[in-house]
């Protein structure tokens, strides 16, 4: 018995990294998954890796676009007949101190994280409200809790996702829809592997568990929030950080 047997989940930014690990974990627990990503070829390859069309489908979606988001969610109902879970995971970084950050870099990060999450959240909420059930998981970041130098754009967006999740949780609770957020810390992925070594080492020194997290360790918390194991939880923010900035 899988925790998501018979359920259909949409995960944004799931062609690689944390999103793909979530898709993999959900599929292993019985879900059929729709992998949304701005990189269409990578989304298709990711779906094939999960076992192909009976289990997964890849859809090109830029989360900043409301119409792309509509099409992504429609793929879940058209291909698999339902929408039970949405994970808003797609993300980018454009790190720079305020002295050098351009307005474009600020806007890009706010758009993908805040507007992108809002697009998924409001459109999935409309579908889930009609069926009176559903679970939404938003991927924030520890940067949104403590603020990181060089990330005024990203920290603001990730803190905004917390407020957005709580507001939506209050709007949707009596419709049977739960909305929760995850704040990962330093997780080994393409996003963090791009960091200069001295930045990586600085972050490592802050982690009581003295190691980075693995994408599978975020995926298992997403599974918990997506499944009935967390049936009485909404509006929460779970930290997956090895104890960093507790
Ligand atoms: N890796 C970490 O340490 C860490 C820590 C905290 C939070 N996060 C968050 O976790 C999420 C996943 O991060 P990751 O480390 O797996 O990153 P990643 O760069 O490996 O993957 C991000 C994915 O999002 C996709 N994407 C980017 N822009 C998109 C858009 N506009 N529309 C749709 N898809 C888009 C990319 O193509 C990619 O497949 C992000 O929201 C990130 O901010 C990561």
TrEMBL record:
UniProtKB keywords: Oxidoreductase
Enzyme Commission code: 1.1.1.100
Ketoreductase domain mapped to chain residues: 7-190
BP GO annotations: fatty acid elongation
Entry superkingdom: Bacteria
Short name of one Pfam family: adh_short_C2
MF terms in GO: 3-oxoacyl-[acyl-carrier-protein] reductase (NADPH) activity
Record flagged with keyword Oxidoreductase: yes
Oxidoreductase among keywords: yes
UniProt cross-references to InterPro entries, sorted A to Z: KR_dom, NAD(P)-bd_dom_sf, Sc_DH/Rdtase_CS, SDR_fam
Cross-referenced SUPFAM superfamilies: NAD(P)-binding Rossmann-fold domains
Family that this chain belongs to: Belongs to the short-chain dehydrogenases/reductases (SDR) family.
The protein's name in its UniProt record: 3-oxoacyl-[acyl-carrier protein] reductase
Originating organism: Prauserella isguenensis
